[in-house]
Amino acid sequence: MAFIKLNDLEIEVEDGTNIVEAARQHGIEVPHYCYHPGLSRPANCRMCLIDLYLRSSEMPERQLATGCTTTVRSAPPERKIDGKYDVIVRTDSPRVIKAREDILEFLLVHHPLDCPVCDQAGECDLQDFSYRHGHDKSRYVEVKNVPPKKDLGPDVLLYTTRCIVCTRCIRFCDEVSGTGELGLINRGSHDEIDIPRNHAGTPIQLLDNKLAGNVVDICPVGALISKDFLFKSRPWFLKKENSICSGCSVGCNVTVEYKEDGLYRIKPRFHEDINQHWMCDDGRLGYHYVNNDDRLQLPQKRVEDELVTTQWADALSLITEKISEVESNDIVVIGSAQATNEDNFVLQQFAHDVLKTTQLGLFGQQLGEEHKFPQFTIEADKNPNTAGARTILGSANGNVVLEGETLWEKVAGAKVVYLVSGVPERALDEAEKEALSKVDFLIVQDILPSAVTEMADVILPGTTFAEKDGTFTNSTGWVQRIRKTIDPPGEAQSDWLITQQIANQLGGEFEYSFAGEIALAIAESVEGYGDATHQKIGDAGIKLA
After folding, report:
1. For 507-524, how does the pLDDT look when each residue is reduced to its tens digit (9 = 90+)?
2. 320-328 long-range contacts, Cβ below 8 Å, gap at least 24?
3. Domain 2-102: CATH architecture, name and number where available
4. CATH topology of domain 144-235
5. Cβ-contact 521, 511 below 8 angstroms
């Protein structure tokens, strides 16, 4: 550990920590633009300049140092300043303050004063630092450069007039995605970010990798813009909640931004062991099904080969009647790799304690492609909770969860199948269709009309990850929380609550009131989940032993 004096604070920090991060850990802002903790440090913006004392507390170094590249380490006793400090740093000296003001003035020379129409307004580092560290007026009266707006790819626009050439986006494409689409053209005050183009100006390579949206997140100004979010809302009108991406088994930590009428965007949230600072565009842009106007809102039942809307009481009574007519070995219950651990736990309790069946299967999104980048992997399993569902569904009586051909063979011979889906845009192959067509009575719990609901005798409207509380277990054993952000459409209900109502109509005594109560039951009864209560999981998650 290094012992340093930071302004008037005496603090200890890990060896190798740079001054920007050391200050951030103790509530001191060192403004910066080019520095990002997940990227290399070129120190080209010069905003993080600091006064550094290495030999005497009376005399700073002749030149200001960049805080992003200045790291601290424990020094031997003979090199400590005043006999105890490894380094002394001032982030608020008069010459540091003057340097910041001058740098901001240069950065704003060609920057348009278009904050009222800029998507970044309200979350812009240039705007914030100008207010806290800059001049109140500009001395530049000459004509500004007005470089063109650029369409970089399917999801990202570049408003070049706003760019301060911090090069974060270039370094991301070189170091994290490894695709290298972005670079600098021209020189001096005319340099610009761009993609490769031919002599006619036609793009020969677009910013089209599956991590491209991250350059929008890390842009400190309003230069790189998400087409998906463009002009949708001012950031200060959005509510925010920490959650987990439901796009694949990586389990990226995200922030869901929303209003009462639906989700507006999803952004990555730092987790050192899972996704670092990043997420893929499949997860980032895959939330639109939550806002889909076609969402299932009321139960439906089949009447003379046609699905018609009905009431919850009628749907539950019909299900109870049909299940009561068959033997337990004629029933197959299928959980979902898209559902939470809590949803699947109540489902397996229902199967074992009420239906007395051990025929439990697992349904989920079909495997996709795996994509590997130098610092990020998108997994082929496009379900957020395959690992958790397998464990939870198989937690009672040592049950082996049915999947693949084995599952569909059991389905084909069943009289009643209760299938919890929640999988957006899930097609069925011929073997799956044939198996489901042989079922006498098919109950489907889902979020959207699908190939599965088309074959159902009763449809029950469930909820998405954005409309319920619970946990997912990712492919490496991290149990993480999702949190409710918006209300489900119509009369849709949480999946565990639907299952609990069916169970109680069939003589069960389920009395769960909220998802956290189910998590406590999981912790008590499922091996390895002893610490996986909502309170202990928090925002960081818990790694299973």
Report:
1. 999 999 999 999 999 999
2. 320/502, 320/505, 320/506, 322/416, 322/441, 322/457, 323/355, 323/416, 323/502, 323/506, 324/506, 326/415, 326/416, 326/440, 328/355, 328/356, 328/357
3. Roll (3.10)
4. Alpha-Beta Plaits (3.30.70)
5. no
pLDDT digits (tens, 9 = 90+) for 176-188: 999 999 999 998 8
Judge residue 41's burial from the number of C-beta atoms within 10 Å of its C-beta, 0-12 exposed, 13-18 middle, 19 or more buried: buried
Tokens read off for 392: 């939870």
| Contact indicator for 258, 188 with CB cutoff of 8 Å | no
CB 91 within 8 Å of CB 53: no
**pLDDT at site 190:** 87
- One-letter amino acid of 333: V
- In degrees, to the nearest 5, what angle opens at C-alpha 248 toward C-alphas 243 and 249? 85
| Residues 379, 388: Cα–Cα separation, whole Å | 16
Cα 279 to Cα 142: distance, rounded to the nearest angstrom? 42
Q: Does domain 300-466+481-510 have CATH number 3.40.50.740?
A: yes
Query: Dihedral, CA atoms, 396, 399, 404, 409, nearest 10 degrees?
Result: -110
Q: Annotate 214-229 with b (16+ C-beta within 10 A) or e (fewer).
A: bbbbbbbbbbbbbebb
pLDDT band at 228 (very low <50, low <70, confident <90, very high): very high
- Residue 396: pLDDT band by 50, 70, 90 thresholds? low
Residue 110: its H or E element? none
Domain boundaries, the chain: 2-102, 144-235, 300-466+481-510
- Is residue 169 helix, strand or coil? helix
Burial class (CB in 10 A: 0-12, 13-18, 19+), 371: middle
**pLDDT value for 399:** 76
Is 144-235 the same fold as 2-102? no
Q: Measured between alpha carbons, how far is 130 from 21 in angstroms, rounded to an integer?
A: 21
Query: Residues 261-281: pLDDT tens digits?
Result: 999 999 999 999 999 999 999
The DSSP-derived string for 111-163 is: ----GGG-TTTTS-HHHHHHHHHS-SS----SPPP-PPEEE-SSSEEEEGGG-
pLDDT of residue 141 exceeding 90, the answer is no
| Nearest CA among 308, 350, 325 for reference residue 518 | 350
| pLDDT for 397 | 63
Edge-to-edge order in the sheet of strand 262-268: 239-244, 253-259, 262-268
345-364 pLDDT, tens digit per residue, is: 999 999 999 999 989 999 99
More confident residue, 233 or 141: 233
